[in-house]
Write a structure and sequence with these properties.
39% helix, 3-stranded antiparallel beta sheet, elongated, alpha+beta, 4-stranded antiparallel beta sheet, 185 residues
């Protein structure tokens, strides 16, 4: 099993993941944490700026010409920064990709959910792509092309080690298409 996701045991008991008897999770993951690093750093920077400005203004404002409560206005930046970090993190954890022996799942949402489930026998082809920067940082997109008009293609966006994810899919697809002795062929 791939160590990308922290707890496969917890995942296998998720009410949105419908595993059949004997079906196992082969890979699960989220977009790379590097994809949210800039937004988190911005939010933290905004919060620190708010704290620094508040401390500085509270030392400068004496209350004679400007009301002393004005010194605490930069605390709004702290709230905005904390909100930025919180929303970025929640948007990141709400997206989860899962590959099992038989299906591919894409789950969006925490409270409300949107789960796309595709059987491996509907998968026609897979591909992955990375820009030069993504390759240096070891993340990229894995595209799953599906058969049929009612099923959309699925893209695992910005996943860590996309070549390993594609390799896992390719291995599972080749296993599912190889006739077994008990299939009567």
């Amino acid at each position: 099993m791939d160590p990308t996701y922290e707890s496969y045991d917890e995942l296998e008991t998720a009410d949105w993941l419908h595993l059949t008897e004997g079906e196992q999770v082969q890979w699960a993951g989220r977009p790379s944490w590097l994809t949210i690093a800039t937004a988190v750093a911005f939010g933290v920077g905004l919060a620190v700026l708010g704290i620094v400005l508040t401390v500085w203004l509270s030392g400068v404002i004496t209350g004679e010409t400007v009301p002393s409560w004005v010194a605490y206005l930069p605390l709004v930046l702290v709230l905005a920064g904390a909100g930025q970090v919180g929303m970025t993190y929640l948007n990141w954890i709400r997206l989860l990709y899962v590959i099992t022996d038989e299906e591919i799942y894409v789950k969006h949402g925490l409270v409300s959910r949107d789960v796309t489930q595709i059987r491996l026998d509907r998968v026609q082809n897979t591909a992955y792509n990375q820009s030069a920067l993504e390759r240096a940082l070891s993340f990229g997109d894995v595209v799953v092309y599906t058969a049929g008009t009612s099923t959309d293609d699925v893209t695992f966006r910005s996943v860590p080690n996309p070549e390993r994810v594609k390799r896992t899919l390719t291995h599972l697809l080749s296993e599912s298409r190889t006739p077994r002795p008990d299939d009567g062929l």
